[in-house]
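Researcher: Structure for this, please.
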Amino acid sequence: MKQHYSEADLLETWYTAPGESMPVMMHLADCADCAERWERVDRKIRSLAACPEERPEGFLARHRHSILHSIEQRQLRRVKASGPIALVALLALALLLAGVWGWIARS
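Model: Predicted structure, C-alpha cell format:
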C-alpha cells in the first residue's frame, strides 16, 4: 500500500469516478497529512472554478477587436500567398491556349 499520496495523485482522484477513488478516500480518513493535502487541492480547484462574473470595462470590445484583427491578418496572408499561385496558373493557361492555337493554325 502507498505511504502517502502526492498532490498529483489527489488531483487525479478528484476527477475519477466515486467507485474508483474509494481506496484513496479510505486512506484520507486515516492519514492526517494526506487529508490536509486533499483540503489544499480541494481549495485550489474550487477557487479556480469560481470565476468572477464581471469583466473589466472594455474587455469584450478589446476581445472582439483582437479576434477581428486576427481574422483580417489571416485573410491578408491568404491573398498574398495566392498572388504568385494565380500568376503561375494564368501563365500556364496562356501557354496552353498558345499551344492549342498553334496546333489549330497548323491544321
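Researcher: Any notable elements?
Model: Residues 59-106 form the longest helix (48 residues). The radius of gyration is 32 Å.
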